[in-house]
Amino acid sequence: MNIFKILAATTCPDGSIAVPTAILDGCATPKDILMLVVEIMTIGIGIVGAIGITIAGIQYITAAGNEEQTRKAKRRIFEIVIGFFAYALIYAALSFLIPDFKPFN
């Protein structure tokens, strides 16, 4: 089995060059792969952000007047919100730069 033959790009019926994958059906163009990566990142960032905010909320609730713990919890929540905002900007930039960019179809 020749590994280079497996990884080689193929030509789809519409004439575009595609990369065969085990995840995407049919001819997967680089745009399709990018959309899959964005979908996975969106789900992952949402899960990690929700867990982070939950942990920070528990840390804030259990601070019991300790200013240091309260400051750490607020800082963690602030950083998570900044992370969400940064990812939203990246997502918006991809939506603007790539025609027909529609993940989650």
Describe the structure concisely for a colleague:
With 105 residues, the protein is mainly alpha-helical.
How would you describe this structure to a colleague?
This protein has helices at 3-7, 30-61, 67-97, and strands at residues 10-11, 17-18. With 105 residues, the chain is mainly α. A hairpin with a 5-residue loop joins strand 1 and strand 2 (17-18). The two termini are 35 Å apart.
Ends apart, CA distance between termini: 35 Å
Tell me the number of strands: 2
What profile does the largest beta sheet have? 2 strands, antiparallel
Helix content: 55-70%
Q: Name the structural class.
A: mainly alpha
Supply Rg: 21 Å
Mean of the pLDDT scores? 83
Shape: elongated
Beta-strand fraction estimate: under 5%
- H/E topology pattern: HEEHH
Give me the side-by-side strand order of the main sheet: 1-2
Features:
two-stranded antiparallel ribbon, 105 residues, mainly alpha, 4% strand
Which helices and strands, and how do they pair?
Elements: H1 3-7, E1 10-11, E2 17-18, H2 30-61, H3 67-97
Antiparallel strand pairs: 1-2
Helix pairs in contact: 2-3
